[in-house]
Amino acid sequence: MLKKSLIIAANLILMLLIVLGVTLLWLPNWLNDRTGHGVRVVVPAVIGQTAEEAVESLESAGLRPMVIDTIYSNDGRQPGEVIDQLPEGNLPVKPGRIVYLTINAYDVRQVIFPDVTQWSTRQAQSHLRELGFVADSVVYESYEFDDLVLSVTQGRRPMKIGESYPIMTKVILHVGSTTIDVNAQHDDAENLFK
After folding, report:
1. Which DSSP letter does residue 148 get?
2. Residue 111 three-state SS
3. pLDDT mean values, one per 10 residues, the chain (194 residues)
4. Interacting residues of 62 by C-beta distance below 8 A, sequence separation 6+
5. Which of 33, 43, 125, 171 has fewest C-beta within 10 Å?
């Protein structure tokens, strides 16, 4: 009986060793295959391409493109052009990795024009710039108080409070001054409206 028990125990130990050996030999290969260990693809550099071209390039490289943000840039970039990507181009990554894209907006962002009349010039310029307007031009007009915004125009057209305008719209602040000679400034003001 003892001899039979030893044979059974020896067989069980032998089976465990075989299973353990097969597992140790097979598991690293299975893990490498499963996790893609050592398998890399190079991320295509897609900055400057259209969103459609970038998606096609990334998908053909075995990656998953995802547009996560759009921003408006008027520095010569085309609508829909890729501005940023993460991870960067030419880096090795695992296949199937998500590549995050930021593109230039297709449409110009619109901003609502606020009422800045009776504000100081500095406050009005600061607020308008913060909203996205270009508020660098000032025309002084004779008024009983200094440095108060009387009106705002775009060229010769008055800006309408509550209306939407594209960002980067250039505006002219008409500001009151108690010491201005309106006739002497008339020629300079005409140049702003051209």
Report:
1. B
2. strand
3. 81 88 72 69 95 95 93 82 94 93 88 95 96 93 93 94 92 92 51 51
4. 41, 95, 96
5. 33
